[in-house]
Design brief:
- The structure holds two protein chains of two kinds.
- Chain A contains 14 helices and 13 strands.
- Chain A is of the alpha+beta class.
- Chain A has a six-stranded mixed beta barrel.
- Chain A is elongated and about 105 Å long.
- Chain B contains seven helices and ten strands.
- Classes of the chains: A alpha+beta, B alpha/beta.
- Chains A and B meet through α1, α11, α12 and α14 of A and α2 and α3 of B.
């Protein structure tokens, strides 16, 4: 192919494509949809996994989360009308962990109670989080105004609280919550700080949503109200009653959660180290508990798992999109073959007038590649617009990576060359005499 | 020296079970500037001879020297180059490319010889004016009459200033008026010193040439000389 002839070859190709506008457009559509689905699918997949990873990352990659779980029933006391089941993490567990585990920077006990908060005549469902001031070490609490709980609050069992801005908005509306008192079960708590609510529970979908609810749980609550652990212990009893199947049952749980932050001075904690820490912790707690009433979650492990899931997800989505590109490519090849046989005479004329085989190949290949490149560009435009619309209307995170654009464009060019070669080769190898005689 | 020098040329088609000899031991010399007609019934080998002369086909054996170069044994690319640079084709059915206009059709042979856009345009315009189509440079073939289309084809055949021009029944699809216009142009080309080879069924057309060869069964049956005209 003559290099200086490329511009003219391209012009010639455009002219031929323009002659068959409808056909060219329909053929291009296959590539448009192929490329667009590659980009859009990768964007949606990437967005979903990023959402998941963010949700997990919020749990803290250097944290170990120990949660209270209800142990399986022993099965002997089904006839009892009233039983108090005593299980779960205890204050002394937290103490033991802090004192016996190496490399633990902080162990934060957490009591969670679902309650209603009132202010004036407004009521909202909230989740009370009874904890200690070091809670901010293990969870990304961002104080917008005021302060978080202090050790004096903790020590003196103060009736103070820090609220989510979601709670602030719902409960106080236009009033400034700072310094005001909200009522929970007959007691009043002074609001000392407002924390930013992070959006993990807002549109938790799939894996990310599961993680967020196992970490925080929403249970219809508008948001969180943080109170000193000591206060929570006194004000909200450790018993909870539930009515199920006509029999009342009660359970006594001290702590719902202990979050342990690991921070060794001399090494960084990889997944292996974190899992080793979990095993150590397991051994320790097993000694203190006679029931299986806790479980240990390693956020880093989930993170690694999520990354693996993402890879598989991307491969699956990518393959589906690649198949649609393949179909588009076959469509192009089909049309180009039809075009070649329709233009047999033109090929014969060109050959008689001095065109070499490679000139004919260049001509038809240029046409195919142009078709796919135009399709590719349109596909990229659509592929960027669609994730934008999805984000806009379906409120799903989508991420269009530059790599996916390059990939889609490269694939469309490759499809053009691959599926254009055979028709072009067929055209070039036709006998000039036969082609000239062709009607 | 003869511009076309053919000696003992054979063309045999292999039809599987048997061979068909289209040209057998043909000898032919054409002088520079000669106007020659080829006549003969169908199946006599006219088309085969024209294809071989036009380097669209290669002989099975024998010698074909075109302007001093042996072209009998060239490969496909070399033959393409010879066709593009040394041979001008005029077809019975014009064979213009439908999606190209007059100028672009004339430019096609120059494009394949790698002549630049500017100079090929100028040359094409000049040729179009020469055949009297200076006013229709941007018309498509479908917007032209048969006679006009054939004039475009003649202009195109001249694009690379070929050493021989092959015309295959150039007036076969035309009414007599347009046909005679075309023949006048061909006469003019001859007068300017072009070597012309024309295949025809029409005795009156053949009489315009200096020399007519009659083919029968792949051999030259007889040859008629009408005397040198220019």
């Amino acid at each position: 192919m003559r290099w200086f002839g490329i511009k003219r070859t391209a012009k010639l190709g455009l002219k031929s494509l323009w002659m068959h506008r409808l056909r060219s457009t329909l053929t291009t559509l296959g590539i448009v949809f192929g490329v667009c689905s590659v980009i859009a699918m990768l964007a949606i997949g990437e967005g979903a996994s990023r959402q998941t990873q963010e949700a997990i990352a919020r749990l803290g990659s250097t944290n170990l989360i120990i949660e209270t779980v209800e142990p399986p029933e022993k099965g002997t006391n089904t006839g009892d009308v009233e039983t108090v089941r005593n299980y779960g993490l205890t204050y002394s567990d937290a103490e033991s962990i802090r004192h016996t585990m190496p490399d633990v920077e902080v162990a934060v006990p957490i009591r969670e109670v679902d309650q209603q908060a009132r202010y004036l005549n407004r009521k909202v469902a909230i989740k009370i989080v009874g904890t200690i001031p070091w809670y901010t070490e293990i969870a990304p609490v961002r104080i917008i105004r005021g302060r978080f709980l202090s050790s004096i609050d903790l020590h003196n069992q103060q009736s103070v609280c820090v609220i989510d801005d979601d709670v602030a908005r719902k409960l106080f509306a236009f009033d400034d919550p700072l310094g005001r008192h909200l009522g929970i079960r007959g007691s009043f708590y002074r609001v000392v700080g407002i924390a930013a609510a992070y959006s993990s529970t807002k549109n938790g979908n799939g894996f990310g949503g599961d993680m967020a609810s196992s970490a925080g749980g929403d249970g219809g609550a508008v948001g969180k109200v943080y109170v000193p652990l000591t206060t929570a212990k006194v004000r909200f009893g450790e018993f909870s009653f539930s009515l199920s199947g006509g029999s009342r049952s009660a359970s006594k749980v001290e702590l719902q959660k202990i979050t342990v932050k690991v921070n060794p001075k001399d090494r960084t904690m990889g997944l292996k180290e974190m899992l080793a820490m979990r095993d150590t912790l397991n051994v320790l707690l097993d000694r203190l508990h006679d029931k299986e009433d806790f479980r240990i979650v390693v956020p880093l492990e989930l993170l690694v798992e999520a990354a693996r899931t993402k890879r598989i997800f991307n491969i699956v989505l990518g393959s589906i999109a690649a198949i649609s590109l393949l179909v588009g490519g076959i469509g192009i090849m089909n049309i180009m073959l039809a075009s070649v046989s329709e233009r047999t005479r033109e090929i014969g004329i060109r050959r008689a007038l001095g065109a070499k085989k490679r000139d004919i190949i260049a001509q038809f290949l240029t046409e195919t590649v142009m078709l796919t490149l135009i399709g590719g560009i349109l596909g990229i435009v659509l592929g960027v617009v669609i994730p934008y619309m999805v984000t806009r209307f379906a409120e799903m995170t989508t991420v269009v990576t530059p790599l996916s654009l390059i990939l889609a464009f490269g694939i469309s060019a490759a499809v053009g060359v691959t599926f254009g070669l055979y028709p072009a080769w067929r055209a070039a190898n036709m006998d000039p005499i036969e082609s000239l005689r062709h009607e | 020296m003869a511009i076309v020098d053919i000696k003992n040329l054979c063309k045999v088609y292999d039809l599987g079970s048997f061979d068909v000899s289209a040209l057998s031991s043909l000898d032919l010399e054409i002088e520079q500037g000669q106007y020659m007609a080829i006549m003969g019934p169908s199946g006599s080998g006219k088309s085969t001879l024209l294809n071989v002369l036009g380097c669209l086909d290669t002989p099975s054996s024998g010698i074909y020297n075109l302007a001093g170069e042996d072209v009998a044994g060239l490969d496909d690319d070399e033959l393409s180059a010879i066709r593009g640079s040394r041979i001008g084709f005029i077809f019975q059915s014009y064979n213009l490319i439908a999606q190209l206009n007059v100028i672009e059709n004339i430019e096609v042979p120059m494009y394949y010889q790698g002549i630049g856009e500017r100079s090929s345009f100028d040359r094409a315009k000049e040729l179009a004016e020469m055949v009297g189509l200076g006013e229709r440079l941007t018309h498509r073939p479908s917007q032209l009459s048969g006679g006009q289309q054939q004039r475009v084809a003649i202009a195109r055949s001249l694009a690379n200033d070929p050493v021989i021009i092959l015309a295959d029944e150039p007036t076969g699809n035309l009414d007599s008026k347009s046909g005679s216009e075309i023949l006048v142009i061909l006469d003019e080309l001859h007068r300017r010193g072009k070597t012309l080879i024309i295949v025809t069924h029409d005795e009156s057309i053949a009489e315009r040439a200096e020399r007519t060869i009659h083919l029968l069964d792949g051999r030259i049956e007889r040859e008629v000389h009408n005397g040198k005209r220019y």
